[in-house]
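Long-time lurker, first post. I've been practising inverse folding by hand and with some scripts of my own, and I keep getting stuck on stretches where the structure tokens seem ambiguous. Below is the full token string for one chain I'm working on. Before anyone asks, I'm not after the true native sequence, just a reasonable design that respects the backbone. If someone could post their per-position residues I'd love to compare against what I wrote down in my notebook.
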């Protein structure tokens, strides 16, 4: 309760005064603005973020400085703007050297500021140092000159800061050894061994290790580096925590530790994933947290900068997966257990909505408040399906639901429309209900055009207006015709007699060996196009006649002439299903499709 009162005083202060760079922000504000989130009024929620990892580190560090000042002040509603004595400078482009720096930074009450590879891209760091570091203070640069170049030192000197200490080793393991050697408050009775090949495990324990002054020593998976062996032999800790599974730190390393320190107690803290390991560590060291610091488990930068904030009270840095719709399973159950024990820690997010989405933050608050359980339904994504026009579609009996603990389960659904009409193409949005879920379940069903059994196209001259009109009338007459299995289609019966009264016009026709004007000229192009389509569909041709002269719209021998009541084109549907004729006249192209 004492920790919560301190945080409340700090928040009250930020809310009541105007500052140059406010650092607590709701997800609806621009970076640097402040307001408390109100998605769940039982749980206080804040966000510390900037547009970039460098600005986020600056904002976190500004919050850290003020938090220290207010906790040390006799008047918690006032900020004396007392400057920090030390600042740790680390690269924002790689985690290797700085993984162990949280413990040193906490001991020195130093924020961790990130820089880019170039000075021009590191203005946030220079702004912070210029505004918040005591002129007699010290900058601790983590990593060699290939990581943070000498030009940064010259820039800091130009700003008036000449006290600089560079901590760098031959590699990341040597650097962690040298950082451990700087600790003055540690009695080295406990040390942490973490992988130097990935950042998640070391950052998961960083706030606890820093709070207790336990050095974090890095190791490759297979074997302890010689300097780390020498450190362990010299300090002879009684307790060693290994973070991560055997893929991160092998059992061989564990055996090496026991050979070096026969009396040592070694405890491995591990889970099935980085998120599980993160929760194993949180449950081990934070059974009663005052604040949970949420950040992405897919990047190191925000967690590294925020580790010194979490270290002040020894509270956990909690990893979430921003690409997942729900919280990691172990985290959801951790939050539910806190709620059952009537613990309601504050939630502070390191990073913007891309790192910690609003929905994830709300889920965490809801679990802590007890308004939902880990096994309640969190969401049921909208599903999509496609059915061919005219085909029967059966709605699914179950839908995939995701619980607050991330588990996916299939649950029965009751649809509002049990029978679906698929005769019309287009999109249909169907709704249903799942017991225990307040929102409607949605399914987007696309009724699509079926793939044709066959299709055939011919070209015509649109400048021949009368002939074009005759083609259009005939194609409209057969468009949409449904033919049952065994049924015989007749062109003449379907199109009807070509007369002026029916709208047909005079155009060139073939009579004997001559081209002469006639009502309905051009109709044979429609029947010939249909013949070629039926031929490709392997339908049974019942009646078909050739022209007495060649025509130019189909290859020789592939025509089918018609003359009402005398010459017809007929075919039989010899399939086991209905077939449908679809016609399209576009520009100078006639297309007939058979479905």
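-- Answer (accepted) --
I ran through it position by position. Result:
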């Amino acid at each position: 309760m004492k920790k919560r009162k301190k945080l409340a005083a700090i928040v009250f202060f930020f809310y009541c005064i105007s500052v140059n760079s406010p650092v607590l922000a709701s997800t609806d504000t621009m970076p640097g603005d402040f307001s408390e989130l109100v998605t769940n009024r039982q749980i206080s929620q804040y966000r510390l973020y900037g547009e970039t990892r460098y600005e986020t580190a600056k904002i976190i560090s500004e919050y850290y400085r003020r938090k220290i000042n207010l906790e040390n002040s006799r008047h918690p509603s006032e900020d004396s703007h007392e400057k920090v004595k030390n600042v740790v400078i680390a690269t924002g482009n790689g985690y290797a050297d700085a993984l162990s720096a949280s413990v040193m930074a906490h001991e020195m009450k130093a924020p961790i500021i990130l820089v880019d590879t170039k000075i021009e891209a590191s203005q946030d760091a220079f702004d912070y140092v210029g505004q918040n570091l005591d002129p007699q203070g010290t900058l601790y640069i983590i990593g060699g000159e290939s990581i943070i170049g000498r030009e940064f030192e010259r820039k800091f000197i130009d700003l008036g800061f000449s006290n600089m200490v560079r901590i760098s080793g031959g590699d990341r393991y040597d650097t962690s050894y040298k950082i451990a050697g700087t600790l003055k408050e540690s009695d080295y009775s406990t040390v942490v061994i973490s992988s130097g090949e990935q950042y998640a495990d070391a950052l998961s324990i960083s706030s606890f290790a820093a709070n207790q002054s336990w050095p974090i020593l890095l190791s490759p998976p297979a074997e302890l580096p010689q300097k780390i062996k020498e450190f362990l032999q010299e300090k002879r800790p009684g307790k060693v925590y290994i973070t991560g599974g055997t893929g991160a730190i092998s059992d061989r390393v564990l055996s090496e530790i026991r050979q070096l320190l026969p009396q040592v107690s070694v405890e491995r803290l591990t889970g099935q994933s980085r998120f599980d390991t993160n929760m194993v560590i949180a449950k081990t060291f934070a059974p009663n947290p005052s604040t949970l610091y949420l950040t992405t488990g897919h990047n190191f930068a925000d967690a590294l900068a925020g580790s010194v904030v979490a270290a002040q009270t020894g509270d956990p840095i909690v990893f979430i997966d921003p690409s997942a719709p729900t919280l990691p399973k172990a985290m959801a159950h951790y939050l539910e257990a806190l709620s059952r024990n009537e613990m309601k820690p504050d939630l502070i997010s390191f990073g913007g909505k891309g790192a910690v989405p609003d929905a994830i933050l709300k889920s965490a608050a809801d679990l802590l408040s007890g308004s939902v359980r880990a096994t309640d339904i969190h969401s049921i994504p909208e599903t999509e399906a496609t059915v061919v026009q005219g085909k029967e579609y059966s709605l699914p009996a179950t839908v995939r639901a995701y619980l607050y603990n991330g588990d996916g389960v299939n649950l029965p659904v009751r649809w509002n429309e049990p029978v679906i009409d698929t005769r019309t193409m287009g999109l249909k949005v169907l709704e249903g209900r799942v017991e225990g879920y307040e929102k409607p379940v949605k399914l987007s069903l696309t009724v699509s055009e079926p793939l044709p059994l066959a299709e055939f196209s011919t070209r015509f001259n649109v400048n021949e207006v009368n002939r074009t009109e005759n083609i259009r009338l005939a194609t409209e007459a057969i468009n949409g015709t449904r033919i049952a299995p065994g049924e015989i289609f007749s062109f003449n019966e379907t199109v009807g007699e070509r007369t002026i009264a029916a709208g047909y016009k005079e155009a060139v026709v073939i009579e004997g060996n001559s081209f002469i004007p006639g009502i309905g000229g051009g109709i044979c192009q429609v029947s010939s196009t249909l013949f070629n389509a039926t031929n490709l569909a392997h339908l049974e041709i019942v009646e078909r006649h050739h022209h007495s002269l060649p025509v130019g719209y189909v290859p020789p021998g592939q025509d089918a002439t018609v003359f009402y009541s005398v010459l017809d084109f007929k075919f039989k549907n010899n399939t086991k299903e209905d077939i449908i004729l679809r016609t399209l006249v576009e520009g100078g192209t006639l297309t007939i499709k058979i479905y």
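A couple of notes from the structure itself: The longest helix spans residues 53-72. The two ends are 73 Å apart (CA to CA). Happy to go over any region you disagree with.
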